């Protein structure tokens, strides 16, 4: 494995981490439209809070998939063919969530608007759940041959670790979304969001403990990379505790940063354990390694130049878009009808 291959493995991990940290808040807000919002007005307000951001936040996932296709075509082929159904379900969730903003904004009746608000909720719940299932199924190993052809059976995808992994991603996205709403809504609603997360965090500790126990049983991460795996686990736990403490202190900004670190930590744990593999086979002799899945050095070099040119511009744009939308939304700005979410 050369430097560029290792670099692009890290870049793809970073892109997935950015996707969970940014689009995770959108998923959380979508879930909050049913779990927290008390009426149509509040649901409209929640959707407006992420209206300017949700589509841009999806770019990180698209970029991660594109980078995987260009930098590690064999990884892309094995992953997308072996987990075709789960990725299809993720895509359906993203489509439901995406179209719901536009159709809800142009709904002519309360009933129509409610249908599309439900679509937003279902899509926001389904996408992170199935993505979490795929990621935590992936780390257990899947049936593969020596050519990298993967076929994930039902119980390779649906098992204790993958289900808890999916639920964990959903839970932390939900908390992350509430923290974002605590920064975007008026002071009364902000306090309400943080009061909910104060209680919700108590669910996180047994869930994390269960995940670690199952990871010890069903993965080789703690055996193959013990120091880094335990270190990342401690960071995830510390970020969870920090988020809980910040919610108790009504420090929405710190709570938001902490939950973002937790979500990024999940991706760090997975990619750290995978290295130097990109796909783990049930037969270790068929593991797909970074060096075997990588594109040519020339392709890697061109991609690195493009990354160095475009990444600063993308980061600057994201910083600017959040900066100009940083003001809190008063509740009076959420009429019951004809609300335009995406501007």
Please provide a written account of the structure.
The protein is mostly helical. Helices cover about 75% and strands about 0% of the residues. It is built from 15 helices and two strands. It has helices at about 5-35, 40-50, 55, 60-70, 75-80, 85-105, 110-140, 155, 160-185, 185-220, 220-225, 225-250, 250-275, 290-295, 295-325, and strands at about 275-280, 290. Strands 1-2 form a two-stranded antiparallel sheet. A hairpin with an 8-residue loop joins strand 1 (about 275-280) and strand 2 (about 290). The longest helix is centred in the first third of the chain and has 33 residues, at about 5-35. The radius of gyration is 20 Å and the shape is globular. It starts with a helix and ends in a 19-residue tail after the last helix. Mean pLDDT is about 90; it is low at about 335-343.
